[in-house]
Amino acid sequence: MASGAAPGVPGTLPADPGSSPAASGVEPGVPGAVPAASGVVPAVPGTLPAHPGSSPAASGIAPGVPGAVPAASGVAPAASGVAPAASGTVPAGPGPSGVGAQESPVAERDGWGSWRLSGEKCWISNAPEADFYTVFARTTPGAGARGVTAFLVPADRPGLTGTPLDMLSPHPIGALAFDAVPVTADDVLGEPDRGFRVAMHTLNLFRPSVGAFAVGMAEAALAATLTHTAGREAFGGRLKDLQTVAHQVAEMAMRTEAARLMVYAAAAAYDEGAPDVPRRAAMAKLLATETAQYVVDAAVQLHGARALRRGHLLEHLYREVRAPRIYEGASEVQRAVIAKELYASVEAP
């Protein structure tokens, strides 16, 4: 069940002379290459692959917002260029301004065991190409997180339409409109009014996956920087012999390794069903995405203007690296989750 060919990555031409072959694992046309937009970690040793189903999210489910519902298309394009059917989550709440009138979808009863979804949602991964969308709709007003139900809605359901959005980096993201879309008990994921639990369990898996994706970008940028600084002649010698450059590269490597190990730890905790998975997942996502931003930015600085030339690996990564700090819970949300989990383990005086 595929959504058809996933869009390519415009502007990612073969790397210019300043690019490192060691970092070409995310460049089109190279065996084993994977576009960074695909949600799959570049082929760098020691990195974990991103889990299918990762989808943009700014803050997770926002309980207590009347009628709030996230809708998601789920799986990011695979390396083969074909996007599997959807699964995943996107935050609740009204859509952004500037993308048409936004009204968060609501689920209204339509007889016993059936509802109709009406409203709009924006920033949905793989919309409108996906085969299915995971929709979290408020089925019991005023019940907060206990009044949200998760539905798996086929894309061809009557009343469901979508439009693509033109993003800075060419991720397949769009907006969805629900016009009395019929859903039944057979479409419910989990139990009615218990969708919040489904969403949180999903985020505990996807957050380390996003972290793995980010580590892959950091590894690619670091590899490119090592090759470039080892061979680039400047100031009467090679860049690597300048202490400021060498120390910068060491910092990039240290942070990347720390992020990689934290992602592994979070993945292991998830597989073991450890009680501290939410905290570990949030830490892994936060550290890895912030690290990737730092490493890619530092790599651009050490490469100079060549890194900003259209088609260069780092130009591609520079655009790709920003989004992971926002979806599946922005960095600020991860800090809030970590603090909440920490204080929950402390007994009140």
- The rough form would be described as elongated
Strand count, sense and barrel status of the largest sheet are: 4 strands, antiparallel
Strand order of the largest sheet: 2-6-7-10
State mean pLDDT (0 to 100 scale): 75
Structural class: alpha+beta
* pLDDT < 50 runs, ≥5 residues: 1-103
In N-to-C order, the SSE pattern is EEEEEEEEEEHEEHHHH
Total beta strands = 12
Helix content: 25-40%
Radius of gyration: 21 Å
The N- to C-terminal Cα distance equals 54 Å
Number of helices: 5
Strand content: 15-25%
Description:
By secondary structure, this protein is an alpha+beta fold. Strand 4 and strand 5 form a beta hairpin. Helix 1 packs antiparallel against helix 2, helix 1 runs parallel beside helix 3 and helix 2 runs antiparallel to helix 3. The longest helix is centred in the middle third of the chain and has 37 residues. The N terminus is likely disordered.
Main features:
disordered N terminus, alpha+beta, 12 strands, 349 residues, 33% helix, 4-stranded antiparallel β-sheet
What is the element layout, followed by pairings?
Elements: E1 2-5, E2 71-72, E3 82-84, E4 106-109, E5 114-125, E6 132-138, E7 148-154, E8 160-164, E9 173-184, E10 188-189, H1 195-231, E11 233-234, E12 237-238, H2 243-272, H3 277-303, H4 313-320, H5 331-344
Antiparallel strand pairs: 1-3, 2-6, 4-5, 5-9, 6-7, 7-10, 8-9, 11-12
Helix pairs in contact: 1-2, 1-3, 2-3, 3-4, 3-5
Short description:
The chain is of the alpha+beta class and 349 residues long.
